[in-house]
Backbone:
């Protein structure tokens, strides 16, 4: 099968005859209605409901081989001997690989190039890949793995972040800030100690947020094909084809121009398919060695080992407030258990301190964060990337503060919202800010005032809020190029093809491209073909992470479409003999808005333009605005726009068992502007679902006393809520268009998860008076807190202390209202030399900027 | 007809009636129906998420009952009627369940969708007017990580109503949220 | 993708044929009914039979007979869990069993898994129900390929857990199991069918086939089953409580309380039963029974949720089960 036919799968060709194919919802809506904001099918919906959508594992190529990876069975060891002789001679085995064959390291962040496709000398967790086999069947490949002999020399195992703090040697990696602490951060915005000393009321609390994983339904799969002319094609279930492209080029030593990466539609991602992975590189190498296509499909257990999920995070928060509850000073510490590799971890660590300031006014703020290496599957970005953990701590602490002050927690929040169009203490620029409306919606909808502290024992309500980025303000590889690009091709038949590197992981990004272009050009969504996520065909989009795609590729599509409209308008206006500013584009027509009967079809407009100008195509691109922060670390947190969410949870707690069931959640989300409200609702409900799972049951559990094996790497034992655990959800979409978003749109994929766990924790307290200061909120924890309460104890379950950590000298940045200009007043020079072993980015732009005080992405400190 | 004394390494020759069409297919006796559908018949619409009966992604209908194709042997299905997602539409027009899943956003990533459609079809075949609770129970063997299930329930309810001949449109709240 | 190891698949049409095939296959042969327990285990290389003898084609195993008016009911071991819990007479006269069957795993799995299969369910342990590669990382365990029980490393025995929902109910009801083997047929009380050892968890000879489950006639008894687990579907029990009482007037004349998922076999707690015999199930009696059940229950750290919580739940759920029976009795009066 050739590549182009597979690419064709991604094109949203209508599968029904014209006439009977009008989606139901459009039938009841006037055809002149705007596309933006109207509920409609996704462009790939028909493929999804017919089974036609081709996921990576659905690809079958002639002569295809099947690969399997052999993974470490020990948590931390040197590889003393590896012998693949017996495997290599097994009938049907075509190639065997070990770490020696792929010596070049890789990693998603330039500062953490610490992974190898196959471990060359050291294994760092159970599941770390050490060898690979390609064979004529998966059965044979599996049998061959058992014939590979490995001798390990065990090394001491680091089981937790606290363990890593206590145990600097042996180091899991020979780089990082100190011992087994990969990353240490200390940022201070104003004199927090002084503010807290003067505060009316001070709280000091510890929280813990357990680790959990994405558990996308689709197991990762990849297919590689090598052509004798030296070209490689990789199809993969990846959210970030651009970064896979980079990693393949680096590790395989091939020029990027000879590598084509095609991201298949992802069967769920949630951040779990955002790193370049071993198996992708391995099948590429095996295809190069054998000259045959090679496929790998991970088992569910292997997906647990790929992980990159939520960092287990210990938190200590000291907050001082005035009489009204205004936060005059907040000191926030986090300790992240990063697992065995860097992944996005440096960014994750910064994110645990980045967004505390964007919901409620924080006058002075200090963040100290540490990320530890441990001998477990590597953590990384899961939906909300580094922010659900601190959000949990913050929102539960605010609930406690409100109680201390005898204030309604909803009112307290409303009174101290971060203002719209403002700059926070840590120099994040807030644009539109709809959190107040969100809180009002859920307070009213849930009957909060009649329920809070008034429901019978065992039933309770809790409120919490959250906010998330609509795309990271800076790229992973710092450079001056756009974050997203779109090309449009206009066909003389009236069809338009949108080319964009963005990757649809189920969130509907392909559809957003089509809706935006259709809206601008006034044509039907089904007249648009979408070609995405193919490094040969589509301009770069950085990937489906940080909730960036609607805003960034949407803006790029908007620009390309507006440019196309300008071209068409010029020629249509000439033909119709009217000024261009009187032209309208709607219903597949180009017309005089003053005399609509003077018109031509969209296709005729294309033809008119093409006759004069030749082939009609346009491009659009998007680069986020520069953020005002100028200190090191200011690169994590800025975004063109922030979404906001508020939720009220109503729970029932069985006081005899500790079982918590969530009856209903009311959630309001400030989306800016819905592009398609149905998909927005789907993201909100899905976020509530995932938040519910994290709050109550999902747990990436290991057995420290048994070789640090993953306790439950299966769909059965890793508890994901079923239909019977899912709560009822009432969703309010708050529209307050943000000037930076396409048509005003902001993100929705991640933000609505954030308030869910703390709202549930706060509701449990309202129900039974017990504080569960960690997630998951399991029956045993609730029961232990209740028992402690009955015995006159504090009625709480959660951590009680935060370890001593060798923090670096703080980077001190005066907040904007203390005459700050976004630059550090002190601390940076000293910190410039901390750390070693980072790998330089290949980007010249990054190198050029690296040493300056303006460098803001964390990687820059390495240069 | 399956040979009685199948050798573990030689293929068995089996007739499966898939989506109303008989298919003669030869495969090793230890292949599951999932593997036979996907690898021997090219029907990749049926998905897999665990291969251990723990997720529901591989659900297909065998002789009228929705089952887990990862835990059924192909050889045990000789002569059986198998319905997969590919056969749901049965012509150029979509099945009402497919229409409603598409319109209400019940399929996000779409990976669990074939399994849900299968389980939902079996439910509606047996019970044309299920309550919300009955839908939750019938779909309790299918995991979805994208939707939180709510849009799936709404799609099944809308499809059920239309299959009963009701001229029903979704509530505004289902499409636009509560005002 | 996890795949099955190769095997020869035999499809007998009669019990006699099946028994003969098994005899010929010897220890390398295994019976399979619904396959919902065996196939996942085979994919993880727990069992690696060279010959699989399917019981699916034996019509006699799929029958439900008797039971009209509450008389003894005989259920074929090959009846699917769905057919079992939907069967009218089972629902009317043995609602506890119907409930237990309906609580097994998921609707999809219940369409495949059989009553007999659930009774013969391999014991479970989260050191054991893992892939071959995972088990390698702990150097395997006593139940398969290894020497140690990681749940209790100094113990000479395996502590894998009987995780059947229908087994404790069958024991509590005093059901009888019919086994076919060779030329013989034998009938064993349900309680004697199980063995409290994670490896030798059944007294059934591997060549024997469980053919029928005989449920006692309805004559003034009542029973219930409560299942504790994390989620409302998919999950095996981390605790099952089957309670059976024989009423005489207002008094409990006889009782059986059987715990599931706390040992390698369904665990009858005679002390708990004694605590309610002769009582009206008043609060004190119920509490005494709950305490009596709590003491001997020894859940181990090899299932979901913590063992301390699961032990504590024995008390709570025995009480809830008995309160249900009491409520129903009062309601009937």
Residues:
């Amino acid at each position: 099968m050739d590549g182009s036919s597979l690419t064709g799968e991604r094109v949203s060709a209508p599968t029904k005859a014209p006439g009977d194919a009008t989606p139901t919802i459009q039938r009841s809506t006037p055809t002149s209605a705007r596309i933006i904001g109207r509920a409609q099918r996704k462009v790939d919906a028909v493929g999804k409901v017919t089974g036609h959508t081709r996921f990576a594992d659905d690809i079958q190529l002639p002569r295809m081989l099947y690969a399997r990876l052999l993974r470490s069975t020990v948590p931390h060891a040197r590889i003393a001997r590896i012998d693949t002789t017996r495997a290599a001679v097994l009938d049907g085995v075509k190639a065997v690989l070990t770490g020696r064959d792929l010596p070049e390291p890789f990693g998603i962040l330039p500062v953490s190039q610490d992974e190898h496709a196959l471990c060359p000398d050291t294994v760092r967790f159970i599941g770390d890949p050490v060898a690979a086999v390609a064979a004529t069947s998966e059965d044979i490949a599996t049998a061959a793995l058992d014939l590979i002999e490995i001798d390990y020399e065990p090394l001491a195992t680091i089981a937790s972040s606290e363990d890593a703090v206590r145990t600097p040697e042996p180091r899991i990696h020979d780089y990082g800030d100190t011992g087994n602490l990969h990353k240490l951060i200390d940022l201070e915005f104003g004199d927090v100690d002084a503010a807290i000393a003067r505060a009316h009321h001070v709280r000091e609390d510890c929280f813990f947020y357990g680790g959990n994983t994405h558990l996308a339904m689709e197991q990762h799969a990849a297919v590689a094909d090598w052509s004798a002319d030296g070209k490689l094609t990789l199809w993969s279930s990846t959210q970030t084809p651009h970064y896979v492209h980079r990693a393949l080029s680096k590790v395989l030593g091939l020029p990027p121009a000879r590598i084509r990466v095609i991201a298949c539609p992802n069967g769920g991602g949630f951040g779990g398919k955002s790193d370049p992975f071993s198996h992708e590189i391995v099948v590429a190498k095996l295809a190069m060695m054998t000259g045959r296509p090679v496929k790998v499909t991970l088992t569910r257990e292997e997906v647990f080992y790929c992980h990159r999920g939520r960092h287990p995070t210990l938190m200590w928060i000291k907050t001082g407030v005035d009489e009204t509850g205004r936060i005059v000073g907040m000191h926030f510490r986090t300790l992240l258990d990063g697992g065995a590799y860097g992944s996005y971890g440096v960014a994750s660590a910064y994110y645990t301190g980045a967004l505390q300031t964007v919901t409620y006014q924080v006058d002075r703020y200090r963040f100290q964060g540490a990320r530890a290496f441990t001998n477990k599957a590597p953590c990384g970005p899961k939906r909300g990337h580094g922010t659900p953990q601190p959000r949990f701590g913050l929102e539960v602490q605010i609930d406690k503060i409100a109680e201390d002050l005898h204030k309604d927690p909803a009112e307290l929040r409303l009174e101290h919202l971060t203002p719209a169009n403002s700059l926070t203490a840590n120099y994040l620029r807030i644009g539109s800010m709809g959190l107040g409306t969100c809180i009002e919606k859920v307070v009213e909808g849930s009957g909060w005032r009649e329920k809070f502290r008034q429901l019978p024992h065992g039933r309770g309500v809790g409120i919490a809020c959250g906010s998330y980025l609509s795309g990271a303000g800076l790229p992973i590889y710092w450079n001056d190029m756009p974050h997203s690009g779109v090309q449009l091709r206009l066909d003389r038949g009236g069809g338009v093809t949108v080319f964009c590197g963005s990757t649809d992981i189920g969130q509907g990004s392909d559809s957003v491209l089509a809706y935006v272009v259709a809206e601008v050009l006034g044509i039907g969504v089904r007249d648009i073909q979408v070609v995405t996520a193919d490094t040969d065909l589509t301009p770069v989009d950085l990937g489906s992470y940080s909730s960036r795609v609607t805003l960034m590729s949407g803006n790029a599509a908007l620009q390309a479409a507006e440019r196309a409209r300008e071209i068409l308008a010029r020629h249509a206006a000439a033909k119709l003999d009217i000024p261009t500013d009187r032209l309208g584009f709607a219903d597949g027509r180009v017309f005089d808005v003053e005399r609509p009967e003077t018109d031509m079809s969209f296709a005729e407009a294309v033809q008119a333009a093409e006759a004069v100008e030749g082939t009609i195509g346009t491009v659009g691109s998007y680069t986020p605005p520069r953020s005002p922060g100028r200190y090191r670390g200011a690169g994590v947190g800025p975004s063109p726009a922030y979404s906001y969410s508020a939720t009220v949870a109503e729970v029932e707690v069985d006081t005899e068992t500790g079982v918590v069931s969530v009856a209903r959640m009311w959630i309001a989300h400030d989306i800016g502007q819905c592009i398609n409200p149905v998909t927005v609702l789907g993201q909100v409900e899905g976020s509530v679902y995932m938040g519910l799972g994290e709050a109550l049951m999902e747990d990436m559990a290991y057995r420290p006393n048994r070789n640090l094996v993953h306790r439950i790497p299966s769909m059965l034992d890793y508890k994901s809520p079923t239909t019977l655990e899912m709560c009822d959800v009432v969703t309010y979409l708050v529209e307050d268009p943000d000037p930076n978003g396409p048509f005003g749109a902001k993100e929705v994929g991640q933000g609505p998860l954030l308030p869910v766990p703390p709202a549930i924790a706060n509701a449990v307290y309202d129900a039974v008076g017990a504080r569960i200061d960690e997630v998951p909120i399991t029956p045993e924890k609730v029961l232990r807190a209740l028992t402690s309460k009955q015995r006159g104890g504090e009625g709480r379950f959660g951590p009680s202390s935060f370890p001593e950590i060798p923090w670096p000298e703080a980077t001190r940045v005066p907040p904007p209202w203390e005459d700050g200009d976004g630059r550090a007043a002190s601390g940076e020079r000293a910190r410039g030399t901390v750390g070693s072993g980072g790998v330089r980015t290949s980007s010249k732009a990054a190198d050029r900027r690296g040493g300056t005080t303006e460098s803001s992405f964390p990687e820059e400190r390495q240069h | 007809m399956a040979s009685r004394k199948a050798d573990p390494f030689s293929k068995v020759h089996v007739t499966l009636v898939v989506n109303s069409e008989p298919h003669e297919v030869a495969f090793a006796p230890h292949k599951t129906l999932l593997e036979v559908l996907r690898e021997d018949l090219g029907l990749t619409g049926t998905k897999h998420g665990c291969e251990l009966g723990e997720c529901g992604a591989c659900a297909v209908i065998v002789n009228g009952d929705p089952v887990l194709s990862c835990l059924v042997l192909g050889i045990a299905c000789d002569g059986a009627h198998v319905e997969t997602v590919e056969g749901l539409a049965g012509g150029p027009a979509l099945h009402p369940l497919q229409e409603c899943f598409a319109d209400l956003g019940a399929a996000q990533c779409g990976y669990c969708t074939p399994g849900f459609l299968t389980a939902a079809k079996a439910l509606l075949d047996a019970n044309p007017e299920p309550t919300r609770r009955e839908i939750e129970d019938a779909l309790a063997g299918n995991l979805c990580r994208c939707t939180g299930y709510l849009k799936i329930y709404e799609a099944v309810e809308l499809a059920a109503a239309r299959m009963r001949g009701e001229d029903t449109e979704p509530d505004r709240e289902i499409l636009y949220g509560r005002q | 993708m996890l795949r099955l190891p190769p095997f020869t698949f035999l499809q007998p049409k009669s019990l006699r044929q099946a028994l003969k095939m098994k005899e010929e296959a010897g220890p390398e042969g295994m019976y399979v009914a619904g396959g919902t327990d065996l196939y996942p285990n085979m994919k993880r290389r727990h069992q690696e039979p060279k010959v699989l003898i399917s019981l699916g084609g034996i019509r006699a195993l799929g029958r439900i007979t008797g039971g009209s008016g509450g008389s003894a009911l005989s259920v074929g071991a090959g009846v699917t869990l769905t057919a079992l819990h939907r069967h009218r007479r089972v629902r009317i006269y043995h609602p506890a069993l119907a409930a237990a069957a309906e609580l097994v795993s998921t609707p999809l799995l219940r369409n495949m898994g059989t009553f007999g299969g659930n009774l013969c369910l391999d014991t479970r342990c989260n050191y054991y129900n893992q892939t071959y590669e995972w088990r390698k990382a702990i150097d395997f365990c006593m139940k398969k390929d290894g020497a140690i029980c990681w749940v209790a490393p100094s113990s000479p025995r395996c502590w894998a857990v009987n995780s059947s929902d229908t087994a404790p109910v069958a024991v509590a009801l005093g059901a009888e199991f019919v086994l076919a083997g060779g030329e013989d047929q034998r009938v064993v009380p349900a309680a004697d069918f199980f063995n409290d050892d994670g490896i030798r968890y059944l007294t059934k000879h591997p060549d024997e086939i469980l053919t029928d489950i005989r449920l006692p006639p309805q004559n003034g008894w009542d029973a219930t089953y409560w299942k504790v687990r994390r989620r409302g579907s998919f999950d095996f029990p981390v605790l099952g409580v089957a309670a059976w009482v024989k009423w005489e007037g207002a008094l409990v004349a006889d009782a059986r309380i059987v715990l599931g998922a706390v040992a390698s076999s369904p665990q009858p707690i005679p002390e708990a039963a004694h605590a309610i015999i002769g009582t009206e199930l008043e609060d004190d009696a119920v509490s005494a029974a709950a305490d009596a059940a709590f003491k001997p229950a020894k859940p181990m750290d090899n299932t979901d949720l913590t063992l301390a919580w699961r032990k504590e739940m024995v008390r709570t759920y025995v009480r809830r089960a008995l309160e249900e029976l009491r409520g129903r009795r009062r309601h009937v009066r």
